[in-house]
Amino acid sequence: MARTATGQVVEDTRRRSPTFGLRFRAYGTRQYVTLGSRDEGWTSARAEQELANVMADVRRGIWQPPRPEPVAGPREVPIFWVFASEWFERQKVEGGRRGGGLTAKGAEDLEWRLSNHLLPYFKSMRVDAITVEDVDRYRAAKVRAGNLGPTSINKTLATLAAILETAVEYDLIPRNVAHGRRRRLPSVTPARSSLDRAEHITALLDAAGELDAKARVRHAQRRALLATLVFAGLRIGEALALRWQDVDLARGTIQVRAAKTDAGIRTVNIMAVL
Q: CA nearest 166: which of 258, 86, 64?
């Protein structure tokens, strides 16, 4: 401990890296100022120099005690409706597989999960107040309502988990209570029937043609639609969204524009049989 006529440098050697401070009187009261440790570059000589500077400021009447750094108040955690709405807007712009945002179909599907299912149940709850029990109660309520199958319910739960995962990343909640298989319903994927024989495809298209011929509505297109699904490999939503400008018979292509994802937007070559 080094002493001067007006104050002293205090060295605390109890720690791995000794620390330095100043003890002195200013404006009629005792003061103590922490400087720092040897690891931070402080030495006895540097501390003595700082003491001299501080005492000179005291004599001139310009020294001020160091002010403690303001402590940030607790963050306000938003309710689910606010947080999910902001998350949805970001997904529309950034949420596509290639980072280019959602397609119209993808945005419509995501909005359906939020507006029709998640928001009515969780909208007034603070994000950090949602518990595992709340997630399980939501799942049970959807099962009792009987409007959705297990796969659709699980899709809404996956959306909830994605929203809460963002809340974890923002340090709003400590963990994602909607994450994990135990929050999901067991679902059995039904065996798919397939048209793997030429006679099956022929029979299907012939039957569709017969229905078209008997239909009261002119220009019935069952056969054309089924043939496009079979031979062009389009999803039903993609086929129903086709417009004449999407079909180029001269070049033999179909332009799929209304796909669910960016990756689904593509050009399909028309097979000769189609």
A: 86
